[in-house]
From TrEMBL:
<dbReference type="GO" id="GO:0031543">
    <property type="term" value="F:peptidyl-proline dioxygenase activity"/>
</dbReference>
<keyword id="KW-0560">Oxidoreductase</keyword>
<dbReference type="InterPro" id="IPR051559">
    <property type="entry name" value="HIF_prolyl_hydroxylases"/>
</dbReference>
<dbReference type="GO" id="GO:0071456">
    <property type="term" value="P:cellular response to hypoxia"/>
</dbReference>
<keyword id="KW-0479">Metal-binding</keyword>
<keyword id="KW-0408">Iron</keyword>
<dbReference type="GO" id="GO:0031418">
    <property type="term" value="F:L-ascorbic acid binding"/>
</dbReference>
<keyword id="KW-0847">Vitamin C</keyword>
<dbReference type="GO" id="GO:0008198">
    <property type="term" value="F:ferrous iron binding"/>
</dbReference>
<protein>
    <submittedName>
        <fullName>2OG-Fe(II) oxygenase</fullName>
    </submittedName>
</protein>
<dbReference type="InterPro" id="IPR005123">
    <property type="entry name" value="Oxoglu/Fe-dep_dioxygenase_dom"/>
</dbReference>
<dbReference type="Pfam" id="PF13640">
    <property type="entry name" value="2OG-FeII_Oxy_3"/>
</dbReference>
<feature type="domain" description="Fe2OG dioxygenase">
    <location>
        <begin position="94"/>
        <end position="199"/>
    </location>
</feature>
<keyword id="KW-0223">Dioxygenase</keyword>
<dbReference type="InterPro" id="IPR006620">
    <property type="entry name" value="Pro_4_hyd_alph"/>
</dbReference>
<dbReference type="InterPro" id="IPR044862">
    <property type="entry name" value="Pro_4_hyd_alph_FE2OG_OXY"/>
</dbReference>
């Protein structure tokens, strides 16, 4: 079962991953749609903080576009349906009480990054799981752009850093309120769909 290793990973290591969340054809279809929407001027510089209005390139340099069911294209609808299946699986196995999700496209121009942060806002604990799905074809380790996740050791006094390359079709998931992480700069454009599975 495709979703099982993701949840197993979260329970054993704090983060979960699968390399086949999307098939190569779905990756190119979504990446194409992302580029088309960006060319149409629909993307905005991502903000920071609760209202996401402050643009601060020294913290994050990506451009984003939120996915909306009402205006979704067939490949976007297919992606959101797959996420819906994942949510159902998580609710059957983990009792997190997930009820909602939100996703945005993200594009990091070469050299941009997202400094170490936690995804859960102080005033909003509804974000339970962070989910990132990469849309990059032929990504090489030397292209950079890794996601670095900081895993606290069990005594909480030290930590371990693991890195994940943004390989197309790969999905990474972790608890939004628990794990700090960062996006390292890449030498080429780095594409993804990022979102949060939320309680009510
Ligand atoms: O793209 C990634 O690997 C992580 C993105 C991220 O941390 C975020 O958007 O909050
Ligand atoms: Fe994040």
């Amino acid at each position: 079962m495709l979703f099982e290793p993701i949840i197993d990973g979260i329970l054993t290591n704090g983060y979960g991953m699968t390399d086949n969340f999307l098939a190569p054809g779905d990756v190119t279809a979504l990446a194409g749609r992302l580029r088309e929407r960006r060319a149409a001027g629909q993307f905005r510089a991502a903000g920071i903080g609760n209202q996401q209005v402050t643009v601060e390139n020294t913290i994050r340099g990506d451009e984003i576009l939120w996915l909306e069911e009402a205006t979704a294209t067939p490949e976007e609808t297919a992606f959101l349906l797959r996420i819906g299946e994942f949510v159902q699986y998580v609710n059957r196995t983990c009792y997190l009480g997930l009820r909602d999700y939100e996703f945005h496209y993200a594009l990091y121009p070469p050299g941009t990054f997202y400094k170490r942060h936690l995804d859960q806002f102080r005033s909003d604990s509804r974000r339970k799981l962070s989910v990132i799905c990469y849309l990059n074809t032929d990504w090489q380790e030397s292209d950079g752009g890794q996601l670095a996740i900081y895993l606290p050791d069990s005594d909480e006094t030290s930590e371990q850093q693991i890195t994940v390359s943004p390989v197309g079709g790969r999905l990474v998931c972790f608890e939004s309120g628990r794990l700090e992480h960062e996006v390292l700069p890449a030498t080429r454009e780095r594409l993804s769909v990022t979102g949060w599975l939320k309680t009510g």
